[in-house]
Amino acid sequence: MPDRHVEKTVQWSKRWLADKIKQGHQVVDVGPGMHLLKREESMRIDVLLRAESAADTIRFYVEELGMFRVDADYGMESYLLRAIANPAICLQIAPWHPPARESPVFALTVPSCDSQFQRLRAMRFAGGRLVPDKNGVLEVFEWPGGKSFMLEDPAKNRFLLCEDRIAPV
């Protein structure tokens, strides 16, 4: 009698476990006959950028800025660039995304705005550039919560590099 009950329980446990694995849970063995279920949740943030020239845009973000790598070639001049410091952040570049605008389309927070500004100020960009403020001054803007400066990629997409004192990297 107990054997049939045990077998029924084991079969139910196997089905239950198989269903959990299909749902994306990972089974972690923590000892004899003991398992933990761990659900691997992940989310990727994609910023959609217009790029008339994929090659120029890739050169800017990958080689000159040095903060992204090419992760996927979707064809039709569409690429996915993944942030080196945080792989959950990606740029999707394609010629059909909405056109660039004056305000920044995204911001990247870095540990030191000043060191990034000095590094990029010394660089000769092939297509992108550092963007001066409304008075034509090219400098790091500082406010009580941090610092920032604006850049523009070859397709005229603007973005900020920021140093956040309130919620740092």
How is the topology of this model organized?
Elements: H1 2-22, E1 25-31, E2 34-39, E3 45-50, H2 54-64, E4 68-75, E5 78-83, E6 89-94, E7 106-109, H3 113-121, E8 129-131, E9 141-143, E10 146-152, E11 158-164
Parallel strand pairs: 3-6, 7-11
Antiparallel strand pairs: 1-2, 4-5, 5-6, 8-10, 9-10, 10-11
Write structural notes for this entry.
This protein is α+β, with helices and mostly antiparallel strands. It folds into two domains: 2-39, no CATH class; 45-164, 2,3-Dihydroxybiphenyl 1,2-Dioxygenase, domain 1, CATH 3.10.180. The chain is built from three helices and eleven strands; from the N terminus they run H-E-E-E-H-E-E-E-E-H-E-E-E-E. Strands 7, 8, 9, 10 and 11 form a five-stranded mixed sheet that branches. A four-stranded mixed sheet has the order 3-6-5-4, with helices on one face. The chain has a two-stranded antiparallel ribbon with strand order 1-2. Strand 5 and strand 6 form a beta hairpin. It is elongated. The protein starts with a helix and ends in a 5-residue tail after the last strand.
CATH architecture of the largest domain: Roll
How helix-rich are the residues, as a percent range? 10-25%
- N/C terminus separation: 60 Å
Mean pLDDT across all residues, rounded?
84
* Domain tally: 2
Low-confidence spans: none
Number of alpha- plus pi-helical segments: 3
Question: What is the number of strand segments?
Answer: 11
Q: Any idea what the radius of gyration is?
A: 24 Å
Sheet with the most strands, sense and barrel status: 5 strands, mixed
Task: Determine the CATH superfamily of the largest domain.
Answer: 2,3-Dihydroxybiphenyl 1,2-Dioxygenase, domain 1
In sequence order, what are the helices and strands, one letter per element?
HEEEHEEEEHEEEE
Shape: elongated
**Percent of residues in beta strands?**
35-45%
CATH class of the largest domain: Alpha Beta
**Structural class, please?**
alpha+beta
CATH topology of the largest domain: 2,3-Dihydroxybiphenyl 1,2-Dioxygenase, domain 1
